[in-house]
Every structure is written in C-alpha cells, then in structure tokens.
Specification:
Residues 153-183 have a biased composition (Low complexity). The longest helix has 15 residues, at 340-354. The protein is globular, with a radius of gyration of 24 Å. With 517 residues, the protein is of the alpha+beta class. Among the domains are: 4-77, Signal recognition particle alu RNA binding heterodimer, srp9/1, CATH 3.30.720.50; 214-264, no CATH class. It is built from 9 helices and 24 strands. Helix 4 runs parallel beside helix 5 (398-407). It has a 6-stranded antiparallel sheet with strand order 2-1-6-5-4-3, with helices on one face. Strands 8-7-12-11-10-9 form a 6-stranded antiparallel sheet, covered by helices on one side. A hairpin with a 5-residue loop joins strand 5 (64-67) and strand 6. Helices cover 16% and strands 26% of the residues. The structure holds zinc ion. Zinc ion binds next to loops.
C-alpha cells in the first residue's frame, strides 16, 4: 500500500487473485498485498509469498501466481481501491485474525449503512455477524465468536504491529527503548496464556540509548592512544564502557566498533558476557495457551501448551538478510507438554521471542523460498507426535538441547522456573549439536541419551492417542470452520482456504544467514 500519494487521494494499490474462470477476483490479505506491491515497486520479476503454510511464486511479467506445492496457477492483477480506514477481526482460537478483504469491505459498508446484521458464506459455512453486539455466529454450529473493528493508521509504515515501544505490562526483560530499535509487549490472556508482540523497528541499535552502555571520558577514564583490541586503532574519544566491565577485566570499546560487533553476536568480545542485544527477528506475534484436553505423545494425562507464531509479510530492515527487499511471512504452531520442563521451555521460548532470537528472514532450505521467515537455530516441536524424527513428541533429549541452544544465544531459564532436578545447565555433549549457529543441519533432533531417561520412560508407560496437529490446532469442527472463515494470511484461492490441516513438517533450524549492518 505504499506510494499511495501517486495514485490519487485516498487510493491504494491492491493485489488480487482470480479464483475461477468466471472472472471472480479475490483480494490478497492486506499484508501480503503490501509485500507484493513492494516487490513490484522494486521492479522484481518474481516474488515468493507464504500464506498459511502455502508457498507461492508470484510472477509479475506473466501476472500470475503459482502454488509451489500444488502447481495451481492463477491470474493476479493490481487494482486501486480506497484506502481502508478500519481493520475487522474475529477472535479465533489463535487470537485475533483479520477477515478476508471481501468481508472487510462488506462489514465496513454494512456498518456505514447502519445495518444491524450482516450474513456471509465462506467455504460452505454460513455466518451471521451482529453489528451491535460485535459477534459472529456460525449458523451451522451455533458457535459465537467476538469480532472487533479497529482504526488503521494513516500511513502503512506504522501498521506492522501494535507494539508499545516503551514495553511494559508483566514484562520480565527490558529491551531497548529508542523508537527505531526492536521492542516488544506482552498481553496476559489469563490462565497463563499470553500474547507477545515483537516490533522489529528499523533495525537500529544505539548501545548508549538502547543498551545503556556508559560513555567514558578520554584521559580521565582511559588512555585514548591505547589500541582498540578489535581494530588495533587508537581508541580515540568516542568510547563506551560495557556493563560487564570490571577493574580486573576491563571492557570498553570504540562505540561504533562495539555496535557493529554486537550486531553479529550478542556477547562482549572481551569477557564473553551475554548482552541483551535484540536479534534480527521480523515483526510478529507469539501466542501461547494451555489445552488441558490434548497431550503430547508420551505425556499421558498432561495438557499441552500450544504456541502459535504469526509473522506477516513485510519489508526487510537494515539488520535483515536483504535490506529494503520484501519478505514473506509465515505461521507456525508448536507444542510443549504442560510439565515442569515444558513450562520452563515455554519461558525460554518467550524470552527468545522477546529478544528477537527465534526467527529470522532468510532463505528456506526446506521450501527453497527466498526472503522468507525461517527458524533461527532454536529447534521447536511442530508435532504432537512422531518422535524426534517427526519433529514431535516424545523426545527425551529435547529439553536438554533446547536449554543449550538457548544458552548459546545468551538465553537462560529464571532460577525459580527451573525444575528441581535441573539446577544447572546441561553441557552439550561433544559431537552433539553445537551451541553455535549450527544451521544447515538436518532438521532432525539428534538423540542425546541419559539424564532424563528415567523420567521420560516412566512417562512413556502409557500412551494416549493424541490428536493430530490439525485437530489439536483447533478445538472442534466448529472452531475449524470458523478459522477457515477468516484465515489471517489468506491468499484468495480456495486451495489456501482449506489449508488448516497443513502443518510444517520440519522442526526449526533452517539455514538462515542473516546479515548485519
Ligand atoms: Zn565484557
């Protein structure tokens, strides 16, 4: 939706896909449309787009999109439409998701006409929206869901997330506060559930404002003719002291040099202390909620923490792989058993997400998509079952590996969240997954024996047939239908609309190769 000014007042470009031979066009969801527009503006011939787990290749010359899995080719077009002023969303199990563009416009029009009710059909299901109560009723199942309408910012640049740059709430970590630096907010949802929003900002990092390093004074605090240990140039007069500094191990550096170094690795180059430098994760949301009624395989009678990550498409900031270029978003679901270790793992993932360390923009080995959101070398369980090889449960070595993968990024469990038997961090075995950015691995958990074998084997005694992730993803058929009725990142075509059953079949750890400024 950029460059609207050139298009005439109040008009914005919108991309649409032809859904059938009868000339029906369906608009892309707003974020996908914006990403496609950005690629188009840059004069790219092709663009890779992900929506609800499907990958598409958009070819601007041919004016068509290809579903890379099914091979379905559909015509696309660019139109100009009045700039939307409000966003309509429905509260699905995964959180608030936008209605598709057709319903966005229909709902807004109905409201303007003072209509009390609006009915529509989606994927064979009828729905009725009560515009006074702000509720949607599935006419087939009777399931009622809340809807909401919120104003859109006048400029799309500010639209990426609703994150409050000051952070806050029940936040347990503090992150940089300058407007351009990444930031995050947490919204508690009750019963331990939460919604985290991460705003990537423009990728700037000020070690003084964001990380609170201390500027120190030449001659008084240090010798400016002394050589910098990183560049072997004289320190000069723009020098900062790190919080890890001690008399015994002095840690101060030229400001620009340490800034550059920290964008590559969030550790003091001198003493190795971890520093809370946000990673290059794109803007997105992490929602976690407990499902007492489903179990990870091997955890009989134990509920499951469902975690849903939603990353809209967007434009890469200067810390990402190819700054300025658009990237395609993704949606991922992962699962943790509601046991002491699982809850600790959840806290670790929460911290990693807040610190921008869980995902990056990269090129996916699995899907061969370029410029897309991929895992950032912290493995997660995308299936309830299937064991280590199926990126699911049970997997007795998983918690140990998660701890060491997080530790490699400076993310540690809070003391009080540690399970009793987990007083110290496990050490990674030689030959096991290295703690470094060991990307390009096989996406398969490598079995690490020992430690929790006893615990796990007792859990393995009884197994209950856990629902498949597709089932686990939604509460019931009605919920599934409602979710289908309002897919958040839907690309028009019906083959996407029915994609609820699709699950990512790989665990995290794709090659990433994010770049630093
Ligand atoms: Zn240090």
């Amino acid at each position: 939706m950029a460059a609207a000014e050139e298009q005439g007042p109040g008009l914005v470009p919108r991309w649409e896909v032809q859904t059938d031979g009868a000339g029906h066009w369906m608009p892309f969801d707003p974020t996908s449309s914006e990403a496609v527009e950005a690629a188009h503006e840059l004069g790219q011939e092709e663009f890779s787009l992900t929506a609800r787990g499907f990958a598409y290749r958009v070819n601007f010359k041919a004016c068509e999109q290809t579903n890379t899995r099914t091979g379905t080719v559909r015509a696309i077009r660019r139109t100009l439409v009045p700039r939307p002023t409000h966003m309509w969303e429905v509260e699905a199990d995964i959180g608030w998701v936008p209605f598709d563009m057709v319903q966005q416009e229909a709902l807004e029009a109905a409201l303007q006409r003072d209509q009390k009710q609006h009915e529509f059909e989606r994927s064979g299901m009828g729905y009725e929206v009560d515009l006074a109560a702000f509720e949607q009723t599935n006419l087939g199942t009777g399931r009622v869901r809340l809807i909401r309408r919120s104003p859109l910012p006048a400029t799309p640049a500010a639209a990426s997330t609703s994150a409050d740059p000051t952070g806050g709430g029940t936040a347990s970590l503090s992150l940089p506060s300058s407007p351009q630096a990444p930031s995050w907010t947490e919204q508690p949802l009750g019963n331990g559930a939460f919604l985290l929003s991460f705003d990537a900002g423009d990728g700037s990092l000020s070690v003084v404002e964001d990380l609170h390093f201390t500027r120190i004074t030449a001659e008084k605090d240090y010798d400016p003719t002394k050589l910098c240990s990183l560049t072997f140039e004289a320190l000069g007069d723009d020098v900062v002291r790190l919080p890890c500094h001690t008399e015994a191990i002095p840690c101060y550096f030229k400001r620009d040099v340490i800034t550059q170094a920290l964008l590559t690795k969030n550790q003091c180059p001198h003493c190795g202390a971890f520093l809370p430098v946000p990673g290059p994760q794109p803007a997105g949301e992490m929602k976690a909620w407990l499902r007492p009624d489903i179990s990870c395989d091997g955890y009989f009678d134990t509920g499951t923490w469902c975690i849903r990550y939603i990353f809209p498409s967007g434009r890469q900031n200067k810390r990402m792989l190819r700054p300025g270029e658009p990237y395609s978003g993704t949606t991922r679901s992962v699962f943790l058993p509601d046991c002491a270790e699982g809850r600790q793992a959840l806290q670790l993932l929460k911290k990693a997400f807040s610190l921008g360390q869980l995902f990056v923009v990269g090129d996916s080995i699995t899907t061969s998509l370029k410029n897309t959101v991929v895992w950032a070398s912290i493995h997660q369980k995308t299936n309830l079952q299937g064991g280590a090889n199926g990126h699911g449960w049970p997997d007795k070595g998983y918690f140990e590996r998660l701890l060491s993968e997080c530790a490699a990024k400076g993310i540690f469990p809070d003391e009080q969240e540690q399970p009793a038997e987990e007083a110290t961090l496990p050490t990674t075995e030689p030959g096991a997954e290295g703690p470094k950015h060991s990307s390009g691995d096989d996406h398969v958990d490598q079995p690490l024996e020992e430690a929790r074998a006893a615990t796990t084997s007792s859990m393995l005694k009884k197994r209950k047939r856990a629902p498949t992730p597709a089932e686990g993803d939604v509460e019931d058929a009605a919920a599934a239908a409602a979710a289908i009725s309002s897919p958040p990142l839907l690309l028009g075509a019906s083959d996407v609309g029915l994609d609820l059953g699709h699950q990512d079949d790989e665990e995290g750890g794709e090659e990433t190769g994010w770049r630093v400024v």
